[in-house]
Design a protein that fits this description.
Elements lengths: L1 H6 L5 E6 L1 H12 L4 E7 L10 H6 L3 H18 L5 H9 L3 H16 L3 H7 L3 E6 L6 H8 L6 E3 L1
Parallel strand pairs: 1-2, 2-3, 3-4
Length: 155
């Protein structure tokens, strides 16, 4: 992302990212602050408690995930009644098991680092954090961000 923004000489960039995209957007606030104007972070793993499925994946060995876990995850998505299930199923079906596994481990490790929430809160940029009703950690996130309530939106 940093290289694309730089190579295209973009300025006043607004980033909108969900999950890992929100996490990357948060990191970019710190990495290239002069190019970024604002961030909309949709459940972007600011804290480890918001890692969701990535945490489950990262808790297994790669062999276990490859041999059993990835197919189980695909079945879970297929059976889901959420509006985004069809899109998620399509995209997850195109991702190799090793890429999904290593990305999940990266998400969890970075969220566990404790760096993302301070990047988000201390950045002078315009920003908004959005979480949905089905986010099982919404109360935890809400309590953390409550004193900064101008950054919160719930769908």
């Amino acid at each position: 992302c940093k290289r694309v923004i730089s190579n295209l000489s973009l300025r006043n960039v607004y980033i909108i990212g969900h999950s890992m995209g929100g996490m990357v957007g948060t990191i970019l606030l710190d990495m290239i602050p002069d190019e970024i104007t604002g961030l909309v972070n949709l459940e972007g793993n600011l804290v480890s408690q918001d890692c969701g499925e990535s945490k489950n994946v990262a808790a297994t060995s790669f062999e276990e995930f490859r041999d059993r876990g990835f197919d189980a995850l695909k079945r879970k998505i297929h059976k889901s009644n959420t509006p985004s299930a069809g899109t998620r199923e399509k995209w997850v079906g195109q991702i190799p098991a090793h890429a999904f596994y290593h990305t999940s481990r990266f998400i969890v490790a970075y969220s566990n680092s404790g760096e993302l929430l301070p990047f988000f809160l201390q950045s002078p940029h315009r920003k908004l954090y959005i979480f949905g009703d089905e986010n099982r950690f919404k109360r935890f996130i809400y309590e953390i961000l409550n004193e900064y309530n101008r950054y919160l939106a719930q769908t």
